[in-house]
Amino acid sequence: MKLIKPLLVLSCTLLLISCFGFSNKKKSDQQATYVPQEGTKVAYFASGCFWCVEAIFESVIGVEEAVSGYAGGNTLNPTYEKIGTGKTGHAEAVAVYYDPKKVSFETLVNVFFGSHDPTTVNGQHPDYGTQYRSIAFYKTTKEKQTIETILNILNDKVYNGKIATEVTKLDRFYKAEDYHQDFEKRNPNQSYVKAVSIPRLNRFKKKFPELLKKETH
Question: Which residues are the signal sequence here (predicted)?
Fold first, then answer.
């Protein structure tokens, strides 16, 4: 019986520093719908909590917007609560809207691999489960070839064949609830954001300073 209270405290602490531990559906959090510019293309990636991934891609020159959502599963109309069970097949993903005149798909793939640990199966610390797995999505044969070329080079020269990233054709992307969009930017003092998201973003900035928009330095 003496262990019950410490275990409860530990569980609550883990929730506070988990991507799934915060679900605040405030009306004031509703975000305006992004309207792509003419010529804008979209790339899709999943590499852990989408709050982190969204912030990373939005810091890159040529990226106009990154939208959090769900992809990679078979369940129709997934929600944050449903995908949090790990049973829908979907992963937390991000749709990256970019200007191909300013940034290439190849560069975005390098950002993807360079901003998380692609050898981790089903997760990125401190979030684990199939909903946090690493996936590089493609829509065309050319995109698939680009992803596989970069993956194979990294597997051979950096990760010793341990990359666990899935290369998957995009079936459908579901936009996440409004309160998830630009979450890190709007909630800088939230416990998970302070402990996980911001440090991950800063590590990326330090690694790829040449890719950053001026205001993100």
Answer: 1-23
